[in-house]
C-alpha cells in the first residue's frame, strides 16, 4: 500500500484557511501529517483539523521541509516568494493566489474541466483559478464540451468576502450605520451615513452596488475583469475565446453570482442544456422559476457545487444561452478547488 | 399668449406620485390648474405641489372632466380602465404603466430618443417605458445614433423600490432582522433570519441578490426581461434588434444599474463614445476609475440624468462597448420621463 503524503497548509489562519481546515476534516482522509503554517505572528496558535488540535508553525524553510504537497492560501507576493522554496524542498505546490495563474510553466486546473493538466507541472506548481472564474467555469465548461463556446459576456456580482475578512467587516459595519440613519432619497445619503467606513472598497457597499474590483489594468478594464478572460481562455484551452466581463461588488457576504451570456458554435436547446447540467459533476441544476427555483447566493453559501438556473435560449440567437450561476467563493471558489487539486496529486503517491 | 393647460395627476398619493409632485414643483411651470387624483380612500388628503396645499379628489369621470393632460401613475389594470375614460373627456393621457407600452396605436416615447413620436397618438395616449429600460436607453440611444446598435446583452440590477413601497419596506425589515442575527456561512441562514418577511420578492433581498422579477413569460424568460427587449426595439425603431436581458433584484433602495454589452454595426472607440456621452442631453459621463469615478446607485439617487461609466471597448470585438449605467428608477425611470412627455404635449396648447 502506498504511503500517505504529508500536507502543508500555508496560510492556515486566514479566511480561506479556516474553510480549508473544515474541508480537510470533512473529505476522505488521504493525508498523513497535516502541517499548519502561517505568518510568525500566528505561530503557536492551535487550530482543529480532522478533530485534532494542531499547533501552527511559522513559515520558514524548515516548515516546508519533508512536505509532499504544499497548499498556498496566502497573498500573491508571499506565494511568489515561498512557493519556489517549497518546490526546492521537494514539495508539489498548489497555489490559490494569482501569482502563477497565467505563468505558461504552471498549469491552471479545475478538476471538472482539465484534470489531466495537473500532471504537467514543469515548475512543480499547480495554480487554482480566481474565485469569480471558478463561480462560472464548471457550468460553462460542461456546456462547452457539447456546444463549443465561442463568446462569453458576463456580469459578475461579487460577494464582499472576495476582498477578504476586511470586506466582510466593512459591510457589517456599514449595514449597522445605515440601519441607524433615516436615509432619504438624495445623492450621497449612504456615503454620509457610513463616513470613512468604506473598508477595502472604493464606494459604499451597503445599500449599493459598486462596479469596480481589482486595480486599473488597461483601456479602462480592471485586473479582475481581465483575469476572468485570461483564466477562462487558459482553462478551456481556447486562447482566442472572446470574453467581456464586468465585475460588480454587491452587498452579499459570501457567494459570487454570475449572469452569463454564452454563445456557442452549435445551436443550443434549453432541454439539452438542462440534461448536460443535471448530470455534470460539481453542478446543481436549480431551474424552475415558477416554483421559485433559481440560485441565490444566500441559498448556496456553504455548499460545494456551482448552482445554475435561469437557463434560457437567447430569443434572437439560436446559438446563445443566458444563465445565472452562484458558487461559494470561499469553498469551490478557493479552498475546495485547491483541496481537490491536492488530492489529485496525493493519488500519485 | 396661449392658455396654460390643466393637468391631472392620477395616482398622486403613490411612490411615483410623491416624486412627481416634487418634480412639478421644481420644473418650469407650464401648467394652469394641477388636479390631484387618487383612489377614493385617499380622497380628501392634502398634498403640496408648487408650494400650495392641494386636496386630493377621488378618481371618477368628473375628476377627469376639463383636463387637458392626464398623467397616469397607477397600476396597469387601473390605467387600462381609466385612461380611455380620460381620453373620451378630451384629455391626452401620458401613461407610466405597462398597459399601453406595446400597443401599436400608442407611441412609446423618451424625449431624448424619439421626441417627435409624441405627436402620433391615434388613441390619444402616450406611454412612458419601464424603469429598467429607462435606466439604459438614453445612453444606448445616444451611442446608437453614431454607431448603429446591432445587439444588446444586459444585466439589470434592480432596486427594491421598482417593486413599489412594499419592496422598500421589505428590504428595511429584512436588513434589521439580519443585523440582529449572527449569521453563519451556512445555506439558508438569511432565510431563517427573515422568516416570512420576503415581501413582494421570491427570495430574501437583504445580503442577497435575486435573479427574478416580474412573472414567468415564455421559454424561461421573465416578463420584465422581455419588456426590456420589446421596449428597446420600439423606442429605437429597430424591430429586429437582438436583445438578451437578465433582471436581478439587489439590496439597493432606489436607482437601477445596468451592465450593458452593446455591439454596433460600426467600429467604436472609447474616445468617440466619451465625446458622445459627454455631450448627450440627459446623460452624465462619470468615468475615471483611477479617481474613483464610476456611477453607483447610492451616488446617483435623487438626480435626473442617466449616469454612465466603465466605458470599455471589448478586448475581442472592435464593434462592441461595455458600459455601466445608473439611473433613479423613480425619477427618469418613472415620474420625470412622464413629466417631460406631459410638458411636450403642453407646448401644443
Q: Whole-number radius of gyration of chain A?
A: 21 Å
Largest interface: A-B, 77 and 77 residues
Query: The CATH topology of the largest domain in chain A is what?
Result: Dihydrodipicolinate Reductase, domain 2
Average pLDDT over all residues of chain A: 95
> Structural class of the secondary structure composition of chain A?
alpha/beta
Shape of chain A: globular
CATH homologous superfamily assignment of the largest domain in chain A: Dihydrodipicolinate Reductase, domain 2
Helices of chain A, by number, come to 9
Taking the alpha carbons of the first and last residues of chain A, their distance comes to: 10 Å
Catalytic activity (chains A, B): L-aspartate 4-semialdehyde + phosphate + NADP(+) = 4-phospho-L-aspartate + NADPH + H(+)
GO molecular function, one term (chains A, B): aspartate-semialdehyde dehydrogenase activity
Subunit structure (chains A, B): Homodimer.
Active site (chains A, B): 131, 256
Amino acid at each position: 500500500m502506498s504511503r500517505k503524503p504529508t500536507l502543508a497548509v500555508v496560510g492556515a489562519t486566514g479566511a480561506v484557511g479556516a474553510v480549508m481546515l473544515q474541508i480537510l476534516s470533512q473529505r476522505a482522509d488521504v493525508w498523513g501529517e497535516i502541517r499548519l503554517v502561517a505568518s510568525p505572528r500566528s505561530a503557536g496558535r492551535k487550530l482543529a483539523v480532522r478533530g485534532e488540535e494542531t499547533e501552527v508553525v511559522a513559515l520558514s524553510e524548515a516548515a516546508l521541509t519533508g512536505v509532499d504537497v504544499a497548499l498556498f492560501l496566502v497573498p500573491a507576493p508571499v506565494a511568489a516568494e515561498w512557493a519556489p522554496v517549497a518546490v526546492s524542498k521537494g514539495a508539489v505546490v498548489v497555489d490559490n493566489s494569482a501569482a502563477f495563474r497565467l505563468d505558461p510553466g504552471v498549469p491552471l486546473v479545475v478538476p471538472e474541466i482539465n484534470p489531466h493538466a495537473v500532471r504537467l507541472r514543469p515548475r512543480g506548481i499547480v495554480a487554482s483559478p480566481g474565485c469569480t472564474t471558478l463561480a462560472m467555469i464548471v457550468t460553462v465548461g460542461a456546456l462547452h464540451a457539447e456546444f463549443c463556446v465561442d463568446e462569453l459576456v458576463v456580469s459578475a456580482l461579487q460577494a464582499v468576502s472576495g476582498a477578504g475578512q476586511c470586506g466582510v467587516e466593512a459591510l457589517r459595519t456599514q449595514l449597522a450605520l445605515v440601519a441607524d440613519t433615516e436615509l432619504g432619497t438624495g445623492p450621497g445619503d449612504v456615503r454620509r451615513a457610513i463616513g470613512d467606513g468604506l473598508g477595502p472598497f472604493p464606494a459604499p457597499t451597503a445599500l449599493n452596488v459598486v462596479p469596480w474590483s481589482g486595480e486599473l489594468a488597461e483601456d479602462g478594464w480592471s485586473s479582475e475583469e481581465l483575469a476572468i478572460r485570461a483564466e477562462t481562455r487558459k482553462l478551456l484551452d481556447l486562447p482566442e475565446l472572446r470574453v467581456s466581463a464586468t465585475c460588480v461588488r454587491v452587498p452579499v457576504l459570501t457567494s459570487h453570482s454570475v449572469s452569463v451570456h454564452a454563445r456557442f458554435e452549435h445551436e443550443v436547446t434549453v432541454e439539452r442544456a438542462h440534461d448536460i447540467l443535471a448530470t455534470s459533476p460539481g453542478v446543481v441544476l436549480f431551474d424552475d422559476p415558477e416554483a421559485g427555483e433559481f440560485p441565490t447566493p444566500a441559498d448556496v453559501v456553504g455548499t460545494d457545487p456551482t448552482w445554475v438556473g435561469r437557463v434560457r435560449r437567447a430569443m434572437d440567437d439560436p446559438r446563445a444561452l443566458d444563465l445565472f450561476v452562484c458558487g461559494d467563493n470561499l469553498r469551490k471558489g478557493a479552498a475546495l478547488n485547491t483541496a481537490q487539486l491536492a488530492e489529485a496529486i496525493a493519488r500519485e503517491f
